[in-house]
UniProtKB/TrEMBL annotation:
Residues 280-291 form the Tyrosinase copper-binding domain. The keyword Lipid metabolism does not apply. GO terms for molecular function: metal ion binding; oxidoreductase activity. This is Tyrosinase.
Length: 363
C-alpha cells in the first residue's frame, strides 16, 4: 500500500495553471504593513474541547462547500459538485509539490500555505479561535497514545484507520470527528478519487532499507541538536526539518503519506496522486509545528532571522555541497489558484503584515 514518496524527489510537472488571480478583498481593506489583529497559535492539547470542536467544524464547513472545477489530473474531467474548498488546498499542494518540497522553498512555501488555509477557515467558515499545532516532540516515546489521536466524535481528530478488515475498510479512519459517521457534516475527499480519510499508524513502514523508527527524529533532543548546531545555516536546519517532516507523514500513513485509495487503479497511483497529503487535517497541525520550530530558530540567535539558502537535489546525501546556490529571497512562490505569487522575503516576519500571527509560549 504505502509508497515512499516523501523521500523521493519525484514529481513532474507543473500544470501551467496560472489563471487569473485576484487580490483577496480582506487585503485591500488593510493598510499595508500593519496587522489589524494578531492570531494566536496554540498546541492542540491546550485547547478546550469546545475550541477543538470549533476548529473541526470549520474544517468540515470548508469540506462541505462544493464547487465544480476542472481536474488537471489524468483525464481532465470537470468534477461537478464533487470537489470542495477544502480539496482546493490538497490540489494546490499536489500541483506544486516539486517546488514546495526538497527545495529551499519548503519552509516559506508552507508558511504561506498554512496562512492561506487558516485565513480561509476564518473568512469563509467564521472560525475565530486559535490556530492549532501538534507538538509531536511531546509524544515521541509513545506516539500511538498521543492525545492528538483522540477518538471523540465531536472534538477528536481520530486515530488509526480500520486496516484489519482491509481491503473492505481500506484503512478508513472510523473514530473521531472525521469518521464517516461523525456528526456535523461529512468529510469526504475528492483527490485522487472520492474517498474517506485513511490512516495506518506505524513506526516501521518497511518502505526503506535501513529504516529507523518514525519516532527517531522527533524528540526534544533531536530538535535541540538540530536547532543549536545550525546557526546561520538554513540549509542544514531545513535538512533536519525535512527528516521530522517525513517521519510524521510516514508514521500516520494513509492520506498523510500519499497512499492511494483502494479503488484507484495502481497505474494511476503516481505523480500528483501521491501528493494530496493535506487530505488529512493533521497536515495543518503537523506543518504548524514545523513552522513554529522555524520561528523559534529564527530568533535564537537573531542572525537566523532571514537566513535562506538552497538544499541539494538529492536529499539523501547531506554531504553534497552542490545545493542550489542561486536561490534568492525575492523569488516569487506560486500557489495555484489560492493566492497571487508571493516572495520568500515576505515570509520571514510572521508577526508582521500580512501574516500577523504568533505562537503562545507554552510548557
Ligand atoms: C519510539 O517508540 C517506541 C514505542 O513506543 C519506544 O519504545 C521508543 O523508546 C521510542 N523511541 C524514541 C526515540 O522516542
Ligand atoms: C499498514 O501498515 C503496516 C506497517 O507499515 C503494513 O504492514 C500494512 O500492510 C499496512 N496496511 C495497509 C492496508 O496498508
Ligand atoms: C546534531 O546536528 C548536527 C547538525 O545538523 C548533525 O550533523 C549531527 O549529526 C547531529 N547529532 C545528532 C546526535 O543527532
Ligand atoms: C554525496 O555527494 C558527494 C559530493 O557530490 C559525493 O562525493 C558522494 O559520493 C555522494 N554520496 C552518495 C552516497 O551519493
Ligand atoms: C546559477 O546561476 C548561474 C547563472 O545564471 C548558472 O550558470 C548556474 O548554472 C546556476 N547554478 C545552479 C546550481 O543552478
Amino acid at each position: 500500500m504505502g509508497r515512499p514518496l516523501l523521500l523521493l524527489c519525484v514529481l513532474a510537472v507543473l500544470t501551467g495553471a496560472h489563471l487569473a488571480l485576484a487580490i483577496p478583498d480582506e487585503w485591500k481593506t488593510m493598510a499595508p504593513g500593519k496587522c489589524e489583529k494578531m492570531v494566536l497559535r496554540r498546541e492542540w492539547r491546550t485547547l478546550t474541547s469546545s475550541e477543538k470542536a470549533e476548529w473541526i467544524k470549520a474544517v468540515k464547513c470548508l469540506a462541505n462547500i462544493r464547487h465544480p472545477r476542472l481536474s488537471l489530473t489524468h483525464d481532465q474531467t470537470v468534477l461537478n459538485g464533487e470537489h470542495s474548498l477544502y480539496d482546493d488546498f490538497s490540489y494546490a499542494h499536489a500541483a506544486l509539490d516539486s517546488t514546495a518540497h526538497f527545495t529551499a522553498y519548503f519552509l516559506p512555501w508552507h508558511r504561506w500555505f498554512l496562512y492561506l488555509f487558516d485565513t480561509k477557515l476564518r473568512t469563509t467558515c467564521g472560525y475565530n479561535g486559535p490556530t492549532p499545532y501538534w507538538d509531536w516532540s511531546r509524544d515521541h516515546a509513545d506516539l500511538f497514545s498521543s492525545p492528538i489521536f483522540d477518538p471523540d466524535p465531536e472534538h477528536g481528530l481520530g486515530g488509526t484507520g480500520d486496516c484489519d478488515s482491509f481491503p473492505q475498510a481500506d484503512c478508513v479512519v472510523d473514530t473521531g470527528a472525521f469518521a464517516p459517521t461523525a456528526p456535523y457534516g461529512e468529510f469526504k475527499l475528492a483527490w485522487p478519487i472520492q474517498h474517506y480519510l485513511r490512516r495506518n499508524l506505524t513506526l516501521l513502514t518497511g518502505w526503506f532499507p535501513h529504516e529507523r523508527p518514525q519516532n527517531s527524529t522527533i524528540g526534544p533532543e533531536f530538535i535541540k541538536n538540530a536547532t543549536e548546531h545550525t546557526t546561520g545555516d538554513f540549509f542544514k536546519f531545513q535538512w533536519a526539518m525535512t527528516q521530522m517532516h517525513n517521519h510524521i507523514h510516514n508514521l500516520v500513513e494513509g492520506d498523510l503519506a500519499g497512499d492511494c485509495p483502494r479503488d484507484l487503479p495502481a497505474e494511476e497511483c503516481t505523480g500528483m496522486a501521491l501528493s494530496y497529503t493535506p487530505n488529512d487535517p493533521l497536515f495543518w497541525l503537523h506543518h504548524a509545528q514545523l513552522d513554529r520550530l522555524w520561528s523559534d530558530w529564527q530568533v535564537a540567535p537573531v542572525e537566523n532571522f532571514d537566513a535562506f539558502s538552497g538544499i541539494p537535489l538529492n536529499p539523501a546525501n547531506t554531504s553534497d555541497p552542490h545545493y542550489d546556490v542561486n536561490v534568492t529571497a525575492s523569488h516569487m512562490m506560486e500557489f495555484d489558484r489560492l493566492s497571487v505569487p508571493v516572495p520568500v522575503s515576505m515570509m520571514f516576519d510572521h508577526e508582521a503584515y500580512p501574516l500577523c500571527y504568533h505562537y503562545a509560549k507554552e510548557q
